[in-house]
Amino acid sequence: MSGPLLTEADAPVLDNSFRNVLVLYGLPDPEASKMAKLEKVIISKVLKDYHIVEHRFLVDEDGKGRGVAFLEFETVEAANTALVALDGYKLDKKHTFQACLLEDMDRILKTEDEFQAPPEEALDSKLNELQSWLLNSDCYDQVALRYQNMTSIGWNMRNRVNIACEREGWSELGVQWSPLGSYLATFHQPGISLWGTEKFERINKFAHMGVKFIDFSPCENYMVTFAPATPINEKDPRSIIIWNLKTGEQMRGFMPPRKYRSAHGEVEEMWPVFKWSHDDKYFARMTDADTLAVYDTESFKKLDNRGIQITGLQEFAWSPRDNVIAYWQPEIAQRPARMGILDIPRKEDLTTRNMFSVVACHLVWQKSGEHVCVHVVRHNKKKTQLYSDFQIFHMNGKDIPCDQLELHRPVVGFFWAPEGNRFAVISGQHPMTRVETYSLESRKIVKHPEHLDITCESVFWSPTSQHMILADRFKMNSQLVFVDANTMETIRIVEHAMVTDIEWDPTGRYVASIASASKTQVDTGYIMWSFQGNQLHKMNRKHFFQLLWRPRPKELINDDDLKEIRRNWKKYQTNFEAADKMMMDQADEETLQARRAMLEDWSDWQMSVEKRLSELRARLKKLRPEDQEDIVEIVETVEVPVKVEEVIVE
Q1: Backbone φ and ψ of 221, nearest 5°
Q2: Tell me: the pLDDT tens digits for 440-453?
Q3: Of 297, 354, 401, 631, which residue is the least packed, with the fewest Cβ within 10 Å?
């Protein structure tokens, strides 16, 4: 036998990494006589749930413990699980464990003792890179697509999405944009990763094993992660963790949310557990004992170290403009239901209003924070019928006045317009529903005369509030009705089977209807429409899960500049139309080139086949005899006798 048994490519690769070895320090350091007992306690109690292949507790020359142990696990996944659980574990009042992977020790040991801040230029450059997508010369918006095991980020170019970054296995569960669009969050078993910059580099990662839910603060200073399967530890809660996005520091851990019982007696689990103030200064949650706990982000402790007692608290919502909270309480015994607006941090009611015969309420703030609506569901005196009314509080008025709109019929939903003081109401019972619009003029509710009698369950306003889509989702014959919001005239009615979600782009020019595989298995994918209901392009993919537009931060342009732009709109419109035409011509040219390439491929294939056929004919010709006259044609005639009988039928 000659030659090597294994080639270099087939040779086994030795894994020299220590990704499955954990370094545990912060342990007690007893005398030599007590080391065996310490090892037994740590292995049998603290580490009993982990499959450890080998362990070693370090001791000095006299056998005294040095407070450090090396733990080897069967797999890297097991080591990562133990890392999350053991880092910060409190053994007793004096000893808190710290853990890291052995392969990270070299990096830690090389870290300078004194912190050296990066130059300000580097920080500014990094910040600018996070906002680089806003500098697109054509002002295209980015969109995230997730299907099968693929995640793509692309530019919406009207008749197609031009992919800018695409990775397989980028996220295990889903993706989520931060509120201002600076970060893309991906889910992994060990935790969350944040990505940004033009090339979508990893900005930071947050270790939280088994994380399923995340939420960002409005200004992107903090992130909340929730891992439902985390073991409950009241002394060191880790089910919910709040992180500092800039530093990656863990600010505080919390116990998992309890299940709240709604006014209808249904058990529902509420996420997000914490709700944030508009400026990231405060966050709040409902606790078990009818208490509203409000925390500040300077100390991450309750204001005045105690909660706000609100008996029977059902729901609360922060204003998007001011540090005030709207809340409501149900009827209890002889006390009526009550809605209030609470000032933070003074913890004082700015206004309250009693309500009677209340079954349920829902709080909806207007985007600008100037108004808040309380959708109240009531029953009649005999408790045989339900009807709705709307209590609208005007935050800019003296003593916060309130107007009431009463509808003596069932209400499906209430929907504020993103801009201005208009709102839409769907009333009636499915499938006989009516869509009406109202506006607030001089702090009075004015009903618009136009309405639509159409089957729908949701209203999706465009970001500019000029158009809306009326949708009846989750049906095989789901219809999308494009409506001019100013005149309530129907522009176009289109169909999208089993549509589950409607997503407007930040400009209001485009809207996507989505059939997500997480909610349906029929024709999953999306269709991109113009605001007038014209289909621009579509994509059908098996196991299509998400289409998410990248949010844009609030524009910095002032009102005077906006007025100047509107005044010269016709000039800009001509330029935009020319750019759109050029883009469409380019797309047509690309399509034409693709067809030409296909035609050339077909011609090349046809020529190759004809060449092979001519070669085959030449070979066959050589096999034939040269003298065709030597071939004698033999014709044989065969006669077959036929017997004929004549039968006469009388």
Answers
A1: -90, -25
A2: 988 789 999 999 99
A3: 631
Q: How many angstroms separate the CA atoms of 603 and 624, rounded?
A: 32
The pair of structure tokens assigned to 622 is: 């050589």
Which of residues 109, 143, 173 is at a domain's end? 109
- Provide the residue count of the chain: 650
CATH number at 71 reads 3.30.70.330
pLDDT-based confidence at 3, cuts 50/70/90? very low
257 assigned to some structural domain: no
Tell me the C-alpha distance between 328 and 364, whole Å: 12
Unique residue bearing structure tokens 């040991």: 109
- Rounded Cα–Cα distance for residues 254 and 252 (Å): 7
Q: What is the pTM of this model?
A: 0.73
**Which domain covers residue 318, as residue numbers?**
284-357+366-399
| 3-state SS string for 114-161 | CCCCCCHHHHHHHHHHHCHHHHCCCCCCEEEEEECCEEEEEEECCCCE
Question: Among 381, 401, 380, which residue's Cα sits nearest to residue 392?
Answer: 401
Q: Write out pLDDT tens, residues 417-440.
A: 999 999 999 999 888 899 999 999
HSE-up of 575 (CA within 13 Å, CB side)?
Answer: 5
Question: 354, 351, 364: which is closest to 398 by C-alpha?
Answer: 351
Q: What pLDDT is recorded for position 552?
A: 92
